[in-house]
Amino acid sequence: xxxxxxxxEGDNVSEIYFCKTKIVAQAKTGKTYYxxxxxxxxxxxxxxxWDLSNAIEHFExxxxxxxxxxxxxxxxxxxxxxxRVKKAQEGTYDEAExxxxxxxNVEEMFTELTGFINSVENEYLSRxxxxxxDNPDFVxxxxxxxxxxxxxxxxxxxxLQHTLAVTKMCDFLAANYEIINRDLLITAAICHxxxxxxxxxxxxxxxxxxxxxxLGHIVIGAMMVRDxxxxxxxFPALLQTELxxxxxxxxxxxxxxxxxxxxxxxxxxxxxxxxTDAKMESFRMAIEGxxxxxxxxxxxxxxxxxxxxxx
Length: 311
Hints:
By secondary structure, the chain is an alpha+beta fold. It is 39% helix and 20% strand. The protein has ten helices and seven strands. The strands form two sheets. It has a five-stranded mixed β-barrel with strand order 1-2-3-5-4. Strands 6-7 form a two-stranded antiparallel ribbon. Strand 2 and strand 3 form a beta hairpin. The longest helix has 24 residues. The protein starts with 11 loop residues before the first strand and ends with a strand.
C-alpha cells in the first residue's frame, strides 16, 4: 500500500484511501472542482479533482475511494491531483489501515497512567479519579479517544498519550517546586481533557459534536468533574473549586479558549505542561508530513517559519 507518509512529489498513485472530507468549490474561472482530504493510518493529504469528467464516479465524505493521481508540491506541502475516482467496494480494504493510531503501546501507557492515579493520596481526589477510571466503559472510550480534530494527537489513542505526557510533566514540576499541591496537580492533569470524549465524535468522523461546538471540552470537562465530586459525600467545596479552576484555566489564556486565566500555581503548572506537549507533538506531526527540504515553511500554530534540526 502507498501510505500517505511515504508519498513524495512526482509519485503516481493508484490506491484506496478514506475520504475524510469532500468540498465542492469554484475556481476563479468559475469552474467547479472537488477539494478532498484523504486519510490512511499514517496521516492525511489534501487532494484536488479539477476535471469532473465521466472518470469521476459519485462518492461522498466518509467513503473509501480508489484514486488515480499524481503527488505535487503546493505552498511547501504535498497535494494530490486526482484524475480518476471510483468508490471502493466493501471487502477491498481493511478499515484498520485507514484510521490513524498512536505509535505507542496503549496498554503500557494506561498502566503507567494508572500508577499516577494510585499515587494520589488525598481521599477525595483519589475517589474522584477512580470513579472515572474504575468504569470499564469510560476506560474503553478514553483509550480510543482523540485529543484533537487536527492540531495535535489527532489519532486513536491520542487522548491517552497526551494525558500521560502532561501528567508526567506535572509530576516533574511537583517534585521540583514544593509550593505545588501534587495531588491536586496530578488529578487536574489526568482530568484536564476528559471533556474531549464528548467534544469529539469517534473515528472515522473525529469531528466536533453539537455539545463540543456549543460548550467545548474545557467546560464539559469541568462539568464532568463537578458531577463526580457531587456524588462523593463530604467532598471539600474549596478543593472542588480549585480542581475545577485548574481545568477551566488549562489553556492558559482567554484567547486560547480558557474561561479563566490561571490563578493557582497548580493551574499555571498544568497550562505549561499542556502547552508544551501540544507544541512538541504539533512540531513532530509537521515534520512527519513535510517535504525533504529542512525548511517547512510558515506554520500557523507556531506563527513562524519552521525548520527541521540538522542531524
